[in-house]
């Protein structure tokens, strides 16, 4: 079988060569092929078609493979560029958030020159709700003491409840055990605000107190905290006639889910 295939290939080549020679010497000045040329042409034309189609197939196949290879390279390059751009965007976003926090703190510092500020990072939190109790990376070596107020540029965060040389524990104002004496900034009415199981702030105010939704709440003179620290805005007011009081829900100005760094504040002469 193999011999026959080889023989057929040899015959095909010989016929093709004969056809080329014949055409070369006889085609000049003629417009129609001879009977012999027609016979030879009819015999070899199918073979030529096979060779042509095979050549075109390989040409198109290699061309497609080459294009696919280039597309793969371009796709990988685009993926790499996209990854770099996303990382750059993430960094820029973090820088924008940090700049916002620092701007808020700077504004607070300019409005409250009576304080000194100790910056601290949050290094951990106790298991449980949100950031009710958390640890910061500064302690007695930095001048921090129990009951020092802890803030961000947005407002009051909590107070120091435990101190070691290199770290301290802070109780957030949303903790159930927290209790703060407050003032309604608009009317100067006073009350007591505490955290609850839902990590919200609830204030109990006298029934006759003038307090409405949207009022700003700050710390009072009678609080463990420094006076005048911003806590948040009144979200709702509920009258309790039988108890002769109002139950006030306060939305904190600080986002306790996203705390990263805080500032411990002390009186201006406390660190001298």
UniProtKB/TrEMBL annotation:
InterPro entries: Cell/Rod_1 (IPR042177), Cell/Rod_MreC_2 (IPR042175), MreC (IPR007221), MreC_beta-barrel_core (IPR055342)
One GO term of the biological process aspect: regulation of cell shape
PANTHER family listed in its UniProt record: CELL SHAPE-DETERMINING PROTEIN MREC (PTHR34138)
Domain annotation Rod shape-determining protein MreC beta-barrel core: ranges: 122-266
Family: Belongs to the MreC family.
Keywords: Cell shape, Coiled coil
Coiled-coil region(s): 68-95
Organism this protein belongs to: bioreactor metagenome
Cellular component, GO annotation: plasma membrane
Protein name as it appears in the record: Cell shape-determining protein MreC
